[in-house]
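Run log // design_07
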């Protein structure tokens, strides 16, 4: 790999970190380990070709272009947490991965605009992750902070929103989201 390719790969991984919270190679390897998958099975569940998954993992490509795939990644991250804490068995995880594979993506908000809390519906964490992904697909964390700083004098609540969701930790964004419901 020449210097230009190394620089492009490093830039792609930095963009992935700003958009997805970490380079996709690390995220996908963790899902593979946590859910007992191989790369081919992960690609199939996500709805990606094996070469595309490889390009995303290696930093040859920076962005997941299909929002439905981003939502499937988020669903698998949530599933991995549930498997790790023992609330979902390996057999249930396999069934859920089949459901994730069939999902078409789309908004996690219901028709009324409220977050569904029933089983199978989106969680607050998933809604927060969707907001974070959207913001991070538009701008890097540093640019979002700069925008927040510019807005802060006239619009402090909007500035806080940008900081929390655009550059903050998911746990902090979940707390913010929950504190602003009703």
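design_07 sequence
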């Amino acid at each position: 790999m020449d210097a230009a390719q190394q620089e492009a790969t490093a830039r792609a991984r930095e963009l992935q970190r700003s958009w997805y919270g970490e380079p996709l190679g690390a995220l996908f390897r963790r899902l593979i380990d946590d859910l007992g998958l191989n790369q081919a099975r992960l690609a199939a569940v996500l709805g990606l070709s094996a070469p595309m998954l490889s390009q995303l993992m290696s930093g040859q490509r920076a962005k997941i272009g299909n929002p439905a795939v981003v939502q499937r990644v988020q669903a698998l991250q949530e599933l991995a947490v549930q498997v790790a804490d023992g609330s979902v068995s390996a057999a249930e995880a396999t069934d859920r991965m089949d459901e994730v594979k069939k999902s078409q993506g789309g908004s996690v908000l219901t028709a009324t605009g409220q977050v569904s809390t029933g089983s199978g519906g989106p969680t607050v964490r998933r809604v927060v992750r969707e907001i974070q992904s959207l913001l991070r697909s538009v701008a890097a964390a540093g640019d979002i902070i700069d925008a927040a700083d510019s807005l802060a004098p006239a619009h402090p609540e909007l500035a806080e929103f940008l900081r929390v969701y655009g550059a903050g930790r998911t746990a902090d964004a979940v707390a913010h989201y929950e504190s602003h419901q009703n």
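The chain has ten helices and no strands.
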